[in-house]
Design goal:
The protein is built from 16 helices and ten strands. With about 475 residues, it is an alpha/beta fold. Strand 9 and strand 10 form a beta hairpin. The chain is globular and about 75 Å long. Pyridoxal-5'-phosphate binds near residues 136, 137, 172, 246 and 287.
């Protein structure tokens, strides 16, 4: 968009005295606002005509990237499939206009939905009870760990204050354990990306009676299925600890296998990832926690009422629309799509763990390291072709991590086009590396200095003006 007006802030477009509305005479009488509640000075608001306002905000909205505008191969924290019908269901006024303080006999429909969703999640996970109070995955982890902590304390087992977390885990795992007042023991990964069982045995031999729980993600953050779960669960249970399952990205498992059957005692699910709900910009979310029979009495109260109800409605609509039959296709299709991209690119991108993956996988940058083109450069260059960047520099196991998750619902044509752009970038890295290193070139804002942006953020118009004056 070349028009200069479109790049400006609404304050810069303001002209004193200009209005974009016309208020009719007041037919409803005058209610004076008490003097103490009135402003001493007029609010400093931009003054613009209607077309300027409409164009300004419409053009701003066009600068947003979303699943409705392009392919979004972000690994781990993926925006998965968000069917539009779920939005209609969540917007039904009969549900949307409910108030949490309404008498229970007027909210039976909503309560029935909660209990049917709980039933569906129990079926899918093999656990016995769920609480829907947590508002996000990390909130679910904290809730689950608090549940585990209370369980140990109820038995007078006060020494259990340590949580075993694999080094490949999502950053929220150790963070939640720390917030819960628990200490983290890191267990190493083997070269094949799975948990080092021998290392775990040493940890249990040394500190077994202090272990409250082991947290695991399966398929893990590298998109690999942990094959030693039964042995790991037996080892942790034998020393008195509980098994926690991070089910943020449950899609590769849906209808295929169940954490409850594998020996996990407590888990959370990110409804906003696995069971639809668009969650850009940090919300809205729901991270229900499931437990084995008997542990539900230790659920803490971490939020009022029943949690984020509209996210639960979308999840239930999604589960019902898939049904028993199609829910089983989610995992295989996610796995097929991820492996298709991986195999189509591994001759030009470095694949440190060359095995079959599940819903996601990790490259370690370009194969040809002599070009000087980094994972950051590849991610920025993808923006020029209208793609959201994959997850980069996570997991920390490799220097140039580039983590890709296509999700299960993308067409082969979309995947093929993405593959061809990724190959084109690899080629360009050899023939014209500067073009890649200075990308993006087609976005409203080019390559930003991310260190300066983090250390010296300019977040509002006044600071911007002051900065200009200083210059
Ligand atoms: C996204 C994610 C989380 C955290 O979920 P939030 O809703 O962002 O708090 C935890 N673990 C894994 C594996 C995830 O992908």
């Amino acid at each position: 968009m070349n028009n200069k007006l479109y790049g400006k802030l609404i304050f810069e477009l303001s002209k004193e005295g200009r209005v974009g509305y016309n208020l009719q005479g007041n037919n409803y009488g005058n209610y004076e606002i008490p003097a103490a509640m009135q402003r001493a000075e007029d609010a400093q608001l931009p003054e613009c005509d209607e077309l300027t306002v409409v164009r300004h905000y419409t053009n701003l909205s066009n600068n947003n990237f979303g699943v409705d505008t392009g392919f979004y191969p972000l690994g781990s924290c993926t925006m998965k499939y968000n069917p539009k019908i779920n939005e209609e269901v969540a917007a039904l006024p009969q549900f949307q206009n409910l108030h949490p303080e309404q008498p229970a006999d007027t909210t039976k429909g909503a309560l029935t939905l909660v209990s049917m969703l709980e039933h569906a999640l129990c079926e899918l996970t093999g656990l016995a009870h769920f609480t829907f109070k947590p508002y996000a995955g990390a909130h679910g982890e904290l809730t689950g760990l608090m549940t585990i902590d209370s369980y140990h304390r109820s038995r007078g087992d006060l020494a259990r204050k340590k949580v075993v977390v694999p080094d490949s885990a999502h950053g929220t795992n150790p963070a939640s354990a720390a917030v819960c007042g628990l200490e983290i023991i890191e267990v190493k990964s083997l070269a094949d990306g799975t948990v080092d069982f021998e290392d775990l045995k040493r940890i249990v031999a040394d500190q077994g009676c202090e272990i409250a729980a082991m947290m695991m993600t399966n398929p893990n953050t590298l998109g690999l299925f942990e094959t030693h779960i039964p042995e790991i669960a037996a080892l942790i249970h034998d020393c008195g600890g509980l098994m926690y399952y991070d089910g943020a990205n449950l899609n590769p498992m849906l209808g295929v296998c169940r954490p409850g059957d594998m020996g996990f005692d407590v888990m959370h699910i990110n409804l906003h990832k696995t069971f639809s709900t668009p969650h850009g910009g940090g919300g809205p979310g729901s991270g229900p926690v499931g437990v084995r029979e008997g542990l539900q009495e230790f659920f803490p109260v971490v939020s009022p009422y029943h949690g984020n109800f509209s996210v639960m409605m979308r999840a239930y609509a999604y589960i019902l629309s898939l049904g028993r039959e199609y829910v089983k296709l989610v995992g295989p299709l996610a796995t097929l799509n991820a492996n298709y991209i991986k195999e189509s690119l591994k001759d030009v991108y470095e694949l440190p763990i060359d095995t079959m993956c599940c819903h996601e996988f990790v490259f370690d940058g370009l194969k040809d390291k002599s070009t000087g083109v980094t994972t950051m450069d590849v991610a920025k260059r993808l923006l020029d072709d209208g793609y959201h960047a994959p997850t980069i520099y996570f997991p920390l196991l490799f220097h140039e991590s580039l983590m890709i998750e296509p999700t299960e619902n993308e067409s082969k044509e979309t995947l093929d086009e993405f593959i061809s752009v990724m190959r084109q970038i690899a080629e360009e890295a050899k023939t014209n590396p500067d073009e890649v290193k200075s990308a993006p070139h087609n976005t409203p804002i080019g390559r930003v200095d991310d260190v300066l942006a983090a250390k010296h953020p300019v977040t509002n118009w006044k600071t911007l003006k002051n900065e200009e004056m200083k210059d």
